[in-house]
């Protein structure tokens, strides 16, 4: 493992701690001021009826023996900014973040006051990568310093490299609370986001309106934000962002964010190619060039793993090869060490779907395993050569596994082969499993297209995926289209492929199909919607308004109404937003 040294500058830290301490009640403030670990304070937690707690880098300790009261919480709330829809607030011109916990009535019953620090010099480990103009993705657990690194990257790009930098600051965590951004971001500009769900729109707006050379984004977490990031990268703008996940493997597993590293798709190989790779015919491969060319896994504050070629890393992981690991660390004196670890073959990587050829699959018993099968010495040289060829073929045959099929068939009521092995494509697996489990359908989900009896796919996927149509046509597998990923649509298709549909019989309505957690509140809301439909909307032809419910429960009610082939919409303002069901 080669190692090299790069000189660097010492880090400087500024945290405006006094401004945060000023919001606390006097007993808690004095306790924090006198605490020996004050400079290592990470956050202060205040929960109603419990002792206030200070969390430091190496320990957590109580800040007094008096439980937190409503007056204490109100004292803090009055001294911070307005709490937005994501329950976050800040202090004007500082980087501190105050997050609220509310009860069911919407009252604040807990506060998490997190220290925001501007650390100058934190990106010395990857500065040369930032200067190349490539897009950089930061990964890591909460609290490891992703946002701090983003803030410093924005300042370096704007001040030192004189680039036009725009920060998309969803929760005002990068540039601080208030309309005037914190000096820690230098000359970079900041765009605030009114609601977290609109972050992707502000990302596109920044590119279209303000001509940035660099866009800085914190916490890419939805599919829309992932698509917006790809759109920005394709316009030639450098992206620097963070995402939910500790490693690249986490993004590969996450279908919502996998597009950031190129997206993952199943590909069917030809016989020759599968034999050459020593893998199954259906393998996972990268779909497109990654949005971010460089990825950094922040293991600790001063220990990062750098992937300078994300495309190569993802390809290696999908083939079961451990990628080249570049570990960068920095010590207290600011000295950087870079260690390169050579890749090795992984034998049990779940992503690879391949059989390692490093260790032959030798027989575990019998004459050959015991070593008693030996060539007869009296054989001629020609026969010995033939035997030698045979030995070589036999040696190679140990590396071949017989195809395993776990299909177990039982006859159905009309002589059908049950269960039916179903290959889903683009359809939510959790919804499929819920319908199969609740209705007790004779269906088994399979990830192998070759062993499937039927394919169920979204209609939009069937329309745009000609390769899927060719594969099912070649294998003569029927394919059923689902209009959308909803329980009613999936239920109808599954009943149809099992020939359970009878136009003369009404569909059974099992409320468990539409309930996610199966709680009493969900079942009660669904029962209310069912009675409204069956007793008023259908027989009397009158619209019905239901009681106010949460967005999650309203979504379940919408799906139940769709099951009856009726229309519904939500109206009113939270928390009184409710459903209205219309007759056909």
UniProtKB/TrEMBL annotation:
Gene3D superfamilies, alphabetized: P-loop containing nucleotide triphosphate hydrolases, R3H-like domain
SMART domains cross-referenced by the UniProt entry: AAA (SM00382), R3H (SM00393)
Residues of the R3H domain: 520-584
InterPro entries linked: AAA+_ATPase (IPR003593), P-loop_NTPase (IPR027417), PTPase_dom (IPR058670), R3H_AAA (IPR034081), R3H_dom (IPR001374), R3H_dom_sf (IPR036867), Spore_III_AA_AAA+_ATPase (IPR045735)
Protein keywords: ATP-binding, Nucleotide-binding
Protein name: Single-stranded nucleic acid binding R3H domain-containing protein
Region described as Disordered: spans on this chain: 363-382
Pfam families per UniProt: PTPase (PF25516), R3H (PF01424), Spore_III_AA (PF19568)
A GO molecular-function descriptor: nucleic acid binding
PROSITE patterns reported for this sequence: R3H (PS51061)
């Amino acid at each position: 493992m080669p190692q090299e040294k790069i000189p660097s500058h010492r880090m400087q830290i500024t945290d405006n701690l006094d401004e945060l301490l000023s919001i606390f009640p006097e007993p808690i403030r004095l306790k924090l001021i006198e605490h020996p670990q004050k400079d290592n304070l990470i956050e202060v937690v205040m929960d109603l009826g419990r002792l206030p707690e200070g969390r430091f880098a190496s320990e957590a300790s109580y800040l007094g023996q008096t439980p937190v009261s409503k007056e204490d919480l109100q004292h803090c709330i009055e001294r911070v900014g307005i709490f937005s829809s994501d329950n976050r607030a800040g202090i004007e011109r500082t980087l501190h973040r105050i997050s609220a916990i509310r009860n069911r009535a919407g009252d604040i019953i807990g506060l998490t006051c997190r220290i925001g620090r501007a650390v100058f010099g934190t990106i010395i480990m990857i500065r040369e990568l930032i200067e190349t103009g490539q897009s950089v993705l930061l990964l890591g657990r909460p609290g490891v310093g992703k946002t701090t690194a983003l803030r410093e990257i924005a300042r370096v790009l704007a001040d030192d490299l004189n680039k036009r930098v725009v920060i998309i600051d969803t929760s005002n965590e990068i540039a601080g609370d208030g309309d005037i951004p914190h000096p820690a971001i230098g000359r970079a500009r900041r765009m605030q986001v009114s609601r977290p769900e609109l972050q992707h729109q502000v990302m596109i707006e920044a590119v279209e309106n303000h001509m940035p050379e660099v866009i800085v984004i914190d916490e890419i977490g939805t599919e829309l934000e992932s698509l917006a990031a790809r759109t920005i990268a394709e316009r030639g703008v450098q992206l620097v962002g963070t995402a939910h996940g500790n490693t690249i493997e986490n993004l590969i597993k996450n279908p919502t964010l996998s597009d950031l590293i190129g997206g993952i798709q199943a590909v069917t190989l030809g016989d020759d190619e599968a034999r050459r790779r020593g893998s199954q015919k259906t393998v996972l491969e990268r779909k497109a060039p990654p949005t971010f060319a460089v990825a950094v896994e922040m293991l600790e504050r001063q220990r990062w793993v750098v992937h300078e070629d994300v495309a190569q890393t993802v390809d290696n992981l999908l083939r079961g090869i451990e990628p080249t690991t570049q570990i960068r660390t920095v010590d207290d004196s600011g000295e950087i060490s870079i260690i390169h670890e050579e890749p090795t073959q992984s034998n049990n990587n779940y992503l690879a779907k391949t059989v390692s050829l490093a260790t032959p699959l030798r027989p575990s018993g019998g004459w050959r395993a015991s070593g008693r099968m030996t060539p007869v010495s009296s054989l001629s040289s020609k026969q010995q050569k033939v035997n030698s060829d045979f030995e070589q073929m036999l040696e190679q045959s140990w590396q071949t596994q017989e195809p395993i099929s776990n299909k177990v068939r039982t006859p159905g009521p009309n002589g059908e082969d049950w269960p039916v092995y179903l290959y889903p494509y683009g359809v939510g697996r959790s919804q499929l499993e819920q319908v199969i489990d609740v209705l007790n359908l004779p269906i088994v989900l399979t990830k192998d297209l070759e062993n499937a009896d039927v394919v169920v796919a979204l209609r939009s996927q069937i329309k745009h995926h000609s390769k899927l149509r060719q594969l099912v046509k070649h294998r003569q597998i029927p394919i059923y289209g689902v209009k959308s990923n909803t329980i009613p649509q999936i239920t109808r298709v599954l009943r149809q492929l099992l020939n359970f549909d009878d136009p003369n019989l009404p569909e059974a309505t099992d409320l468990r199909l539409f309930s996610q957690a199966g709680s009493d509140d969900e079942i009660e809301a669904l029962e209310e919607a069912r009675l409204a439909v069956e007793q008023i909307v259908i027989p009397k032809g009158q619209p019905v308004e239901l009681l106010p419910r949460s967005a999650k429960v309203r979504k379940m009610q919408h799906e139940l109404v769709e099951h009856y082939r009726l229309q519904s919409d939500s109206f009113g303002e939270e928390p009184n937003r409710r459903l209205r069901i219309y007759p056909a």
